[in-house]
């Protein structure tokens, strides 16, 4: 059952071929057997999941419910879940039980999904490999010696290994697209403001956006449909109507103009990844699209700009963790300053501290103009590049990452090398545009991703193009070693 | 710009992070490396460019200044490290 599409699972539930309880128990069983090797979940909530599944079954029996009723998913542990520990991958929040739900969680709950648990992630979403989690690294289901990417690495590994039907994620600089590419699945980061940030623990508020990791564009469309839309509780929520994403999935792409930024095909791009990306582009060309070489001249500066803007915003956002109102508090503080300093030093890991300090420095008196203001100006130039590009092309494409998944530990001693892994994904966040990654042909047995960048609120178009690609190819159907379709113990199981 | 141990100590204090004396040097090296990456920004002339604070040029929404939320003090304080009579407890601030 775990390898079926969400539409097929929903049809199975409606036809009573299996119940949501059976489906949920199947995923819980797989988590129990396969996740010890992957560590993709921080918290699994068996009892609540089964109770919600039972409610979904009653709903379906009464002829009610929608396309997601009874479908088991995972939430990245950055989304507040009422009554269920929400750690954000940090010791700081190891004891934090939220008193309310994030809007994304609330909306998916109202759509009838069953939450299996909370997915592992880089601490406070700061990382590109899922190695900064307080709960230990996540392993890539394709090769457990490699990273799954980050920061939504638990979400990506769980989807790829068939430990949930789909998962939520967040993307501040590539945190949905990069792990989707490394794990061979589909991931979409919508336009900034498309999904509510209410109850989504803030990292860099002008960049953070919620999205979906799924096994296909069609699955992602169904989940995004239920998440997206205006929310008065998020001051930056976009007041734009949400189109019917499923309705336009099958539209043909004849005449589509695809821009290929030369900056994304240059030095540093692995030859195997490039070949796979170009093979996917050739398939889109075969379906009637035109490939156009173009330039994003300021895109190479997106990494330096990001490492001012994101740390500056993180240093402000994470000031709320003070050991007073919630979260970790040190033992026997001798005064208030000691309480703040030790609670924060004990609660945060090394990467989070580095970024808080960089941000604090960039915002401090005498340095603001040289760092933060300069970065905001360059951010404008990067956004202008995209604005001009979308006067010429409909969508921009390139590799999601320069290489396939790297080995655990390979970049942990060199933060800058780690940061450069997001070189193709960050500009999209700085401009606030939607981006999507789809699997292309594996490179030496490891997944790689094609990134599609659309104009503002063009999520439907990106899902449509990705779906057309997936209708014509089977790269997204490949199954990783750590998630055999029919392991011996499952022989005879109703799969 | 390269940072030294003294700079790191100052930044850590501003950020209210306790950093052990022995770790200052390592942080100075790491943060200096990140700043070296960041300094690539100076290659581009940005004179006269309007800084971009936000991806969507939206105006801040306003609402009437009225109470819209129910009191959830008990629920919110249930996750606090220390409270008493509805107040958060911290070490003595005023002697």
Explain this structure.
The complex is a heterodimer of chains A (495) and B (95). Chain A is α/β, with parallel strands linked by helices and 495 residues long. Chain A has helices at residues 6-14, 20-34, 46-61, 103-110, 153-160, 177-183, 217-227, 271-286, 302-317, 336-347, 350-363, 368-389, 415-419, 426-431, 459-472, and strands at residues 41-44, 72-76, 114-119, 166-171, 186-189, 209-214, 257-261, 290-294, 395-399, 435-439, 449-453. Chain A has a domain at 6-251 and 434-490: Amidase signature (AS) domain (Amidase signature (AS) enzymes). Helices cover 36% and strands 11% of the residues of chain A. Chain A has an 11-stranded mixed sheet with strand order 1-3-2-4-6-5-10-11-9-7-8, with helices on both faces. In chain A, helix 2 (20-34) runs antiparallel to helix 3, helix 5 runs parallel beside helix 6 (177-183) and helix 7 (217-227) packs antiparallel against helix 15. Chain A is globular and about 65 Å long. Chain B has 95 residues and is mainly α. Chain B has a domain at 5-42: Histone, subunit A, CATH 1.10.20. Helix content of chain B is 32%, strand content 4%. Chain B has helices at residues 5-14, 24-38, 73-77, and strands at residues 83-84, 87-88. In chain B, a hairpin with a 2-residue loop joins strand 1 and strand 2. In chain B, helix 1 (5-14) crosses helix 2 (24-38). The radius of gyration of chain B is 22 Å and the shape is flat. The mean pLDDT of chain B is 92.
